[in-house]
Amino acid sequence: MYNKNIYQDLDNTMYRELLDDNYIDEDIDSNNFSREYGKFAAINRFCEGYKDFLSVAKTERLAVIEIEKLAKKAGFKKFNPKDSVRPGDKIYFINKNKNIILYILGYKEIINGMRILGAHIDSPRLDLKQNPLYEKKEFALFDTHYYGGIKKYQYVTTPLAIHGVVVKKDGTSIKVDIGEKQDDPIVGIPDLLIHLSQDQLQKTAAKAIEGEDLDVIVGSRPLPKEEKDAVKKYLMEYLERTYRFTEEDFASAELEVVPAGKARDFGLDNSMIASYGQDDRVCAYTSLKAMLDMHRHPEYTVCGLFVDKEEIGSYGATGAESVFFENTVLEILHAYGKDSIYNLRKALENSYMLSSDVNAAIDPIYASASDENNAAKFNYGIVFEKYTGARGKSGASDANPEYFAKIREVMDRFKLHYQTGELGAVDKGGGGTIAHITAKYNMEVIDAGVAVLNMHSPMEIVSKADVFETYLAYKAFALYTR
Ligand code: MN
Ligand code: MN
Q1: Last residue of a domain, which of 259, 285, 310?
Q2: Could you tell me if 449 and 282 are in contact, meaning their C-beta atoms sit under 8 angstroms apart?
Q3: Tell me: the pLDDT tens digits for 243-260?
Q4: Ligand 2: centre distance to CA 179 (Å)
């Protein structure tokens, strides 16, 4: 089903072969509704779970906690090096609380390759600096350094929440989560009132709000009888009392400022979802669910790779560049008693991967930024992106046509809706994913995910039908690509 709108084609019933009973409501189906209604109901049911995930998994750490919770519920067990393993086992590994990898062991030996779904669980945001707290004009503020690519002007005058940990010298980790519950306070960054903005409005959009001005107001109440920095002192006393950490402890903290609030339906027809952090948690959730709901044992080992740090280049111990992923494959080979370098290299080289990441949807107002014939569209299903990069494909991992042809065959066999996409028209900009990193193992890899409007903004938008179709496509890929 290449380049066809999902809603124009709801009588496609093949999706049932990819589902267990979770998403099929036989009552609805038999109650004089058409078969089409069955798929429509399945889309909506799936997306309710997705919105719940988005609303809690607002940082990479929170995503790892939520993924582990859902995986355990589906029968996955944390890998123990002392355990033996066998085909059919469902196991997972967690790396430094910010990176999680799931496996369903296949009937074929791992040396034959795996089917890998790799998504990232970090999103653009503002990180607190290591000395964040200061007072100015009798306000207390947190100084931040932005993380990933943002349009800075989108972050002022918008409700913000703070999530993360403060780790004390004795090793205790204090969790901070403020701004999501209805009775929690929110925080935010001020912007100059329009009445006094004549000078500001002459600046370019890149300069109107400077990175060093993305500081978050967190208090205004002074500590009585204090002369200097009374507001800052009151706030620090409050934090010490409530959370039991000192100002110095900020040095070993990781606190992230993100748009506050839950994921919601978007559009009067409820056909879309608006939320912060859908790049790339939309592909993380659909990849995860493809594994959790796998209704038959896979022939090839299926791997769900959920990495951190993609938005800043995938460096670091918890990013895709880390050898942690490779080490987990070695751990499994070791548990099978087959942990030679030869087996490890062959297992990786023989693997097929979908780099599960989002693509830019064509924007009705800024359509000229895309090439219409090669841009992803809402409601046309999973988007395959042969190459990313910028200018002359610089930085791209250009996928092999022999490989994509195999995937097309599976998509069409199950009547799944799919399209191809490219991040914008030539020379308009560009971007990257983790595809080129795992391609270093000489495995086959192509980017595949959901089309997003407003990418990297506090309110990213996706189509519900695309979310569901991508989930089905990931499952079909993992089970049926040969
Ligand atoms: Mn991404
Ligand atoms: Mn991104």
Answers
A1: 259
A2: yes
A3: 999 999 999 999 999 999
A4: 24
